[in-house]
Amino acid sequence: MPVNESMVQDIVKEVVARMQLSGTAQSAQHGVFNDMNQAIEAAKEAEKTVRRMTMDQREQIVSNIRKKTHEAAEILARMGVEETGMGNVGDKILKHHLLADKTPGTEDITTTAWSGDRGLTLIEMGPFGVIGAITPCTNPSETVLCNSIGMIAAGNTVVFNPHPQAIRTSIFAINLVNEASLEAGGPDNVACTVFKPTLETSNIMMKHKDIPLIAATGGPGVVTAVLSSGKRGIGAGAGNPPALVDETADIRKAAADIVNGCTFDNNLPCIAEKEIVAVDSIADELMNYMISEQGCYLISKEEQDKLTATVLTPKGLNRKCVGRDARTLLSMIGIQAPENIRCIVFEGEKEHPLISEELMMPILGLVRAKDFDDAVEKAVWLEHGNRHSAHIHSKNIDNITKYARAIDTAILVKNAPSYAALGFGGEGFCTFTIASRTGEGLTSTSTFTKRRRCVMSDSLCIR
């Protein structure tokens, strides 16, 4: 049955009503609790059951999460946009279908074996237990669902501390995970959270004796806090991915790919193109294609200053601008842009605040470089050592190799939009937790396991 606005409003009202309940009536309802300690205890009890489940049983839960994510993709997308004001429904629908199809499950768990004269040794991937997860408002339900698939497939349960600005959407996704588990014969509370996540509930989670692993998807502040917790931490932090274009690239295609990647979900993905570094000889051609064919609006120096004052405040990014479309951002500085405008472009030095700062908005500053080596140097500076993501458009293998070694990021996309890194128009699996800072890179089920060696000496080798 097609989803309409009335249905979405009814669902949102239902979730809000649950959040407004008081007393014990709201506790233990599909993983949502008043108190973080209660949530952790419930997840711990559920983990005792999950740990005993066979791989096939875990895979049944994961398969049902995938199915229900497909069914609820439009609802979750609309809830996310309505609650946070960020992104756009169409792209969020695509992201939910992508994660449902391409997030690894139990197939990602493998065993290494050595068999010889001295017996048999196995290295097996086992669960941590109860994982604590911090999720962002930029991809709220996507991160909850993606993390849940990987963590549960690995034999864990998970306690989420979602971003408060996306709590309704996050709770809906957590309910979906638990419903999927129950329908597949698993326990309730495989994913848990609290009705009102705060810094205090996050601190409780990070310090709790029953949480051995914490996965944080968010800004540098939350990742730093996790890495200071004394626990094993997986930190998916900030990036400022540059897109480098050299003189050998297909310039017209590069313009289309860069703008398509930058504008996907209004630039919310952390892997998205945030700025361009172009070799001087092709910079004008690239800018011309972006303006004439890709719906880009070229702003003047005066308009740049107005936009800078609007999107950047003394305390950081203006939250009212993050994840907004280009026409909305232009309207904030008094420009009524045509309907086809989807990206704001300009040329500036690498130190320009709209270029050097990660904005998560469809704004692309172009930095001109005198040659390829200069472009690499500027791109590396702009990436700020986050080692997160970077992009290049080139047909010169030596140039691509030189850039890849210099930028040293977890993700490097060549001659494609940034979202190819997540398996959308490219090969490979999907994830919404990219742990560049702690080195895991694109996380998957195997990331949420610990390696254990099992040795049988002088036995079970039957050669």
Automatic annotation (TrEMBL):
Domain Aldehyde dehydrogenase: 31-426
Annotated GO MF terms: acetaldehyde dehydrogenase (acetylating) activity
Gene3D superfamilies assigned: Aldehyde Dehydrogenase, Chain A, domain 1 (3.40.605.10), Aldehyde Dehydrogenase, Chain A, domain 2 (3.40.309.10)
Pfam families named in the record: Aldedh (PF00171)
Statement: the UniProt record of this protein carries the keyword Oxidoreductase: yes
Keywords, sorted A to Z: NAD, Oxidoreductase
Protein's name in the database: Aldehyde dehydrogenase EutE
Native organism taxonomy: Bacteria, Bacillati, Bacillota, Clostridia, Lachnospirales
